[in-house]
Design goal:
The chain is mainly α and 403 residues long. The chain is built from 18 helices and no strands. 42% of the residues are buried. It binds protoporphyrin IX containing FE (HEM). Protoporphyrin IX containing FE binds next to helix 7, helix 8, helix 9 and helix 11.
């Protein structure tokens, strides 16, 4: 079909309300010349998963071996820990190959990234927690996968597990032998492989999936989530005039490049520079954002849990902060109740708060202490979840959402 004809068919479909199944992936058009590999094989990341580990998890789930693997993995925490002795041989052989940094990992950059995370932690907690976390609920494929998987039924537990990933990634020793991120990333990779096997068996998930026969969590889907985290946070830090050196920015990107590599994304899809990442994000994240029933419920769960804390602000303020960080359009999709007074306070108070913290304002602006308490409460939420368990609590699911 010529592209003109195809476009006419698509616009006719749109006019009839047919074309826009929320979350349908756009055709892949990003060039691998902008990737860390510098070249590509022509593969389409919407149709690339993680074959070896996917086969492995399918076998372990069918054989009923996953609970024993979860027990064995409890003692596997630090990057320098040996693999647990009682893992099935095929899983141990696989983990031996992948449980390490790639040859292109730059230790100086990773150390700088860790230091950057420490220096900017206040903004990072706010942006990951109230920005990326809520954005994940308007990424239709992610929202539906999370909602209909086992973890979707207990968002408190799931949020704690996800915080573990963020906490381990942001830790000063994240990639060092005494850090935990390489292990946490590998456990997450196993969880994703299990989800690829389990979710297609859920009739409730297949009924709402944009492509019912599509296996979830493709390389393309992981890239979308990376943009909702790393690329989004980087963009916001610039918009908020948070001072960053070029080396800091590069190090922060490098940390994410290594992280998504550890999650199984091929090097031909991993953006090389922030400009390449932004271009990819505009193609695959921005046009895909949309409300779904599942996403609205997840957002309400997440914001309800946050609002249970003593934030020093009202739920209306929390809603408006999310709107401020993400946009009114997303706020409207999620039906976040308006509080126009809080919105006005945030619009003027938050930039002044940042300016004062960064030493660009001589006197504390009005509302400084309220913002400070809010920021501290969000940080505590993150840190409590990250520091309380002595072992990473990430476990491989054996089923989908119950009930
Ligand atoms: C599980 C992180 C991409 C769907 C997890 C877990 C972490 C995590 C830490 C383990 C915690 C838990 O079990 O809840 C990430 C990161 C991603 C990413 C850092 C990309 C940078 C995705 C994508 C999808 C997805 C693209 C779907 C489209 C899920 C699901 C679970 C999960 C369904 C299992 C929840 C459960 O049943 O417990 N992910 N994820 N993830 N992830 Fe991801």
């Amino acid at each position: 079909m010529s592209s003109l004809n195809r476009r006419r068919v698509l616009s006719l479909g749109a006019a009839l309300g047919l074309a826009s199944v929320a979350g349908t992936a756009p055709a892949w058009a990003w060039s691998s010349t902008g990737s860390i590999a510098g070249t590509g094989t022509g593969a389409d990341p919407w149709w690339v998963w993680d074959d070896e580990v996917d086969r492995l998890l399918a076998r372990l789930l069918k054989a009923g071996e996953v609970p024993a693997v979860n027990t064995a993995m409890q003692a596997w925490v630090n990057n320098s820990d040996p693999l647990p002795g009682d893992l099935p041989t095929d899983l141990a052989t696989y983990l031996q190959q992948v449980n390490r940094l790639p040859a292109w990992a730059d230790h100086d950059k990773l150390r700088r990234a860790a230091d950057f995370n420490r220096r900017k932690d206040t903004y990072l907690f706010m942006l990951y927690g109230l920005g990326s976390g809520i954005m994940s609920t308007v990424i239709p494929r992610e929202a539906r996968s999370v909602y209909w998987s086992a973890g979707g039924a207990d968002m408190k537990d799931r949020a704690a597990k996800t915080f573990t990933f963020g906490y381990d990634l942001s830790d000063l020793n994240a990639f060092e032998p005494s850090g935990q991120f390489v292990v946490t990333a590998n456990k997450t990779r196993l969880v994703h492989a299990a989800v690829r096997h389990l979710l297609p068996q859920s009739t409730r998930w297949t009924a709402v999936a944009d492509e019912p026969k599509h296996i979830p969590i493709s390389n393309g889907d992981i890239l979308i989530t990376f943009h909702s985290l790393g690329t989004f946070v980087h963009k916001k830090l610039i918009e908020w005039h948070v001072p960053m050196s070029a080396e800091d920015e590069e190090a922060f990107l490098h940390m994410w490049q290594v992280a998504i590599h550890l999650l199984g994304v091929r090097e031909e899809f991993i953006p090389k520079t922030w400009a390449d990442a932004r271009a990819q994000s505009e193609q695959i994240l921005t046009p895909l954002l949309a409300p779904t029933t599942e996403g609205k419920r997840l957002a309400e769960d997440l914001l309800g849990l946050t609002a249970e804390l003593d934030l020093g602000v009202t739920r209306g303020f929390l809603n408006e902060f999310v709107r401020y960080v993400l946009s009114d359009e997303i706020g409207d999709w999620l039906e976040l109740r308006r509080d126009y007074a809080a919105a006005a306070t945030i619009r003027t108070g938050w930039p002044a708060y940042i300016a004062f913290r960064e030493g660009l304002l001589p006197v504390a602006p009005a509302g400084f202490y309220m913002f400070d308490q809010f920021v501290r409460a969000i940080a505590m939420l993150f840190l409590n979840n990250g520091t309380s368990p002595t072992t990473t609590p990430i476990t491989i699911p054996t089923g989908n959402r119950p009930g």
